[in-house]
Amino acid sequence: MGDGNLSTKLVLVARTDLGMSKGKLASQCAHAAVDCYQKALQTTPQIVKMWELMGQPKIVVRADEDGDECLLQLHEKAKKVGLTTAVVRDAGRTQIESGTVTVVGIGPGKVKLVDQVTKHLKLL
Questions:
Q1: pTM for this predicted structure
Q2: CB 6 within 8 A of CB 29
Q3: Residues 21-36, buried b or exposed e (16+ Cβ, 10 A)?
């Protein structure tokens, strides 16, 4: 399983400029992970199977710029290289204005592809 061609991961890119509590941030990341997983089951079930066999690696990183635009650009870049991706927009019931992009999930996908989109981002 250490073979780079078989390695898979899911990356969650979170905004840190919104002042979300740790619990709120965890909830938003969970939304992105579940959404990506559900989409990937439909579109790339073989990748999901590899990801599951590897222990479902998930990495949380911080957006490199403030605002929705940074996450939306990462979402588009991920789509262009053929990765599953999900944008989480807050419902606005608690801490954040409705419709605000909080997290983007990228993957599960082959590490090589996911890194093309997210390698420059720092761990959260």
A1: 0.93
A2: no
A3: eeebbebbbebbbebb
Q: What are the beta bridge partners of residue 89?
A: 101
pLDDT tens digits for range 26-43? 999 999 999 999 999 999
Domain that holds residue 17: 8-118
The count of structural domains within the chain is 1
- Give CA–CA dist 22/43, Å, rounded: 31
Q: Which of 62, 56, 64 is nearest to 36 (CA)?
A: 56
Q: Please report whether residue 50 resides in a domain.
A: yes
Q: What CA–CA distances, in Å, run from 105 to 1, 3, 19, 44, 63? A: 23, 23, 19, 15, 12
Cα–Cα separations (whole angstroms), residue 32 to 4, 27, 29: 25, 9, 5
Mean pLDDT of 37-58: 97
- Which residues, listed in sequence order, are joined to residue 83 by a DSSP beta bridge? none
φ and ψ at residue 55, rounded to 5 degrees: 95, 15
